[in-house]
């Protein structure tokens, strides 16, 4: 891990929170292992969450019909994105590993963190039509979600009222992280820390500290490679890939399930 660079994108309002403790533990352990760790504390930075034309300095190409993706691509190419975005892009470019630390809000990331994703992961910088998924721009980087829930683990099960956590994680891990090419490490989920005794929270943090000892050496979650899809036919799974899995019990992934049972823990554990 020595000389590796880690970026922690952190979203919690309170320094007394469990999320803050998890972030601090990551900084402490990874720094002790020789990593260079940067933290983007989004609330402390008052990071702007809305993707607007104000993210571009100077004139835009088409003010009457403003298209954020196209305009920020041009601005990125011309060096005209605002300083808060370019600073985060610098951190991301330098990072070998990105950890998103947050409390789950409404089954996803808090708005300020979604704003970081919307504004920092711009077209051209983070992805292009040609460079995405397994052939994505950040394919040599690792990323992971580390978050707290309000609900207990049983509620996020296949039989639980919230539904399978693997399904909840698919849009974030496949649709954002893997889309940009990241090798996605299994999430670190702290189940309902506000509803357990303090010693249980301490145990949660210790397990996180232990995991971080070998974090950068972990294998990533499995996703179906881009070349398994036919770009000339609407990016449908190629017939030969479909046929190869026809007799298997489970689908390929949570999203590409082929009408079969979902592969267990596909978005929560590597090697399944």
Automatic annotation (TrEMBL):
Its EC number is 1.10.5.1. GO terms for cellular component: cytosol. Its cofactor is FAD; Zn(2+). One of its GO terms (molecular function) is metal ion binding. It catalyses: 1-(beta-D-ribofuranosyl)-1,4-dihydronicotinamide + a quinone + H(+) = beta-nicotinamide D-riboside + a quinol. The enzyme apparently serves as a quinone reductase in connection with conjugation reactions of hydroquinones involved in detoxification pathways as well as in biosynthetic processes such as the vitamin K-dependent gamma-carboxylation of glutamate residues in prothrombin synthesis. Belongs to the NAD(P)H dehydrogenase (quinone) family. This is Ribosyldihydronicotinamide dehydrogenase [quinone]. It comes from Champsocephalus esox (pike icefish). The lineage of its organism: Eukaryota, Metazoa, Chordata, Craniata, Vertebrata.
């Amino acid at each position: 891990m020595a000389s590796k660079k880690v970026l922690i994108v952190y979203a919690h309002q309170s320094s007394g929170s469990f999320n803050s403790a998890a972030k601090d533990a990551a900084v402490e352990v990874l720094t002790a292992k020789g990593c260079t760790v940067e933290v983007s504390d989004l609330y402390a930075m008052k990071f702007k969450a809305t993707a607007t034309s104000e993210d571009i300095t100077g004139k835009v190409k088409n003010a009457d019909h403003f298209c954020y993706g196209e305009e920020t691509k041009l601005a990125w190419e011309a060096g005209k994105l605002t300083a808060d975005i370019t600073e985060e892009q610098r951190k991301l470019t330098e990072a070998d590993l990105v950890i998103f630390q947050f409390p789950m809000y409404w089954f996803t990331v808090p708005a300020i963190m979604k704003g970081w994703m919307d504004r920092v992961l711009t077209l051209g910088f983070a992805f292009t039509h040609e460079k995405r998924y397994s052939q994505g721009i950040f394919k040599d980087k690792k990323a992971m979600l580390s978050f707290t829930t309000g609900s207990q683990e049983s509620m996020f099960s296949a039989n639980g009222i919230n539904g399978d956590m693997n399904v909840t994680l698919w849009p974030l891990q496949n649709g954002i992280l893997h889309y940009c090419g990241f090798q996605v490490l299994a999430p670190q989920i702290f189940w309902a820390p506000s509803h357990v005794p303090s010693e249980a929270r301490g145990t949660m943090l210790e397990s996180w500290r232990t995991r971080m000892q070998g974090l950068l050496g972990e294998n990533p979650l499995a996703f179906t490679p881009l070349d398994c899809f036919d770009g000339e036919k609407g990016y449908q799974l190629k017939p030969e890939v479909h046929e190869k899995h026809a007799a298997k019990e489970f689908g390929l992934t949570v999203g590409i399930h082929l009408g079969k049972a979902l592969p267990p823990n596909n978005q929560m554990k590597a090697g399944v």
